[in-house]
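Trying the structure run again after the queue cleared.
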Amino acid sequence: MKRIAAILLLALLAAGVSAQKIVLSGIVVDDKTGERIAQANVAAGRTGIAVVTNDDGRFTLKADDLPDGITVTHIGYQSQRLSAAQAQASPLTIRLKPGSVQLQEVVVWTTDPRELVNIAIRKIPENYSRQAELYNCFYRETAMKRQHFIYVAEGVVDMYKTAYNRDAGRDRVAIRKGRRLLSPKQNDTLTVKVMGGPVQPVQLDIAKNLDFLLNPEDLNCYSFAMEMPDMIDGRMQFVVSITPNASMPWALYYGRLFIDRETLAFTRAELTLDMSSSEKATRYMLVSKPAGVRFKPKEMSCLIDYRYEDGVTRISYIRSTFRFNCDWKRRLLATSFTAFCEMVVTDKTREDVRPISGRSSFDSRDAFFDKVDYFRDPDFWRDYNIIEPTETLDKAIDKLIKKYH
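Done. Tokens:
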């Protein structure tokens, strides 16, 4: 019996070891200035696992096995590829060198930037996934009152996407695991809801949800201009800027669209909502607010990033920023608020992919706060890839937790 017990114990120990994750961590910095680089993409070899650096340039990447290397990319920089041996040094300091574009290398498909955008739209079915895929993602949303965090929520979500030759009607997001933390101070809380949430990769995927931006009616409201090309992951990108040129009943965007020179796939979009009409911007941003509260929009911007891998371009990261003031009719001074939402695709599944049912999915009308639990487990993210919290956010979380006790 002792021998059997010993064998069982060894088996349990072996299972524990095999379940452990390989953890790679470090910071990404500018090679010349030493400044830390936020939102750099860090991918683990050919595994499909990826994360992005936080605003402090830090990352942690977890994998079941040691990857054959890691690749770090960021717009405007040369890609940095580290071997498996180099990647094991912990913590890593990865230095990215600024990339340069040789104008003689640029092959212009057309001198008309609007036509270039039209060609990229027509090529969407061949540039993006032609089959349904399930993405594993990490999502975080935060809110600040002036300079202090008053709310943090984060979770692991599954995102189902149909092939890109179909519309986004059946695309779904479901929460697998999540937690939240809200300031217990009554004067900190504000039940204002702005657009956003985990459904952003469905709503803001410009290559899939053409109604968001790349439809003929909206495109006719913009002027287009070619800008200097740029580099992403060693691939040259055409850059087309868009500027509103018409007055419409809804708010329009200023922005830049990045289009891969070789594939003519949309690879990145940087968009900022036009704030010239406070009424239009409010209708666009605001979902609900208490009676008696006046909402004044200040900024709404979003970043949509895609990653080229194995001949296919896929959505990889989305970040939205909302800035607004709120005041009460009987108060003289307005209070500033800032809300952030970001989601990174950490892994994907292409085999035996099944749709997420409507009953299980997150709806744009749902509040993420109502779907997840309070911060409890210190090992909550032990087995998941996440966007590392910044030092400022880490300290804010500690303070908010202490207020509950």
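The mean pLDDT is 85. Worth checking whether this holds up in the mutant runs.
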